[in-house]
Amino acid sequence: GAADGNTFDLFMKDGYGPKGNCPSGGNWSAVLVEANPRFDAKLAAVEKQHPYDVSIMSSTAAYMCEAKTSFFLDTVNEARNFWGSSMSSEHNDVQGSGKQKVTVPTMNLNRVLYVQTIPEDYVMLKMDIEGSELDVLPCLARARTASLVDVLYLEQHQPSWGLTGTTAA
What we know:
This protein is α/β, with parallel strands linked by helices. The protein is built from six helices and seven strands; from the N terminus they run ααβαβββαβαβαβ. It has helices at 6-12, 23-26, 40-49, 92-96, 109-116, 133-142; strands spanning 30-34, 54-58, 61-63, 67-72, 101-108, 124-127, 151-154. It has a three-stranded mixed sheet with strand order 3-5-4. β1, α3 and β2 form a beta-alpha-beta unit. It is globular and about 50 Å long. The chain starts with 5 loop residues before the first helix and ends in a 15-residue tail after the last strand. The mean pLDDT is 90.
């Protein structure tokens, strides 16, 4: 998830390597996906600052299909940017927040890769989706779009937070 754009800020400060090294003379574009509606305004501001380079999918969960899902809000970890919001009601911070939920659409990561990239692009995928990584990764690995991803940054969470029962093994 894009949260409030903090990872994008790191990218802009060359935290993933110099942007000038991007192919095509340093040209880049970004698609930021975040399910937590708390961050809609901050992400809209990021898109406004970079209107031709950044596309925002606010109040939308990154997943392996297009549907609607319950998304549970972390309301207790303000100091950590509400990092425990998740599609899983089993997440500790979700439980500590009283399992407050909203309904959000899911986007199909494979479709976004197919529509937004070409084989010549250098594609960096950052996946921090609070337990749904193990739902999405097997689907991505089996898809042709997997070959479009050049580097994957992954924060893996508890397998039990996934919705499909996929394990880390």
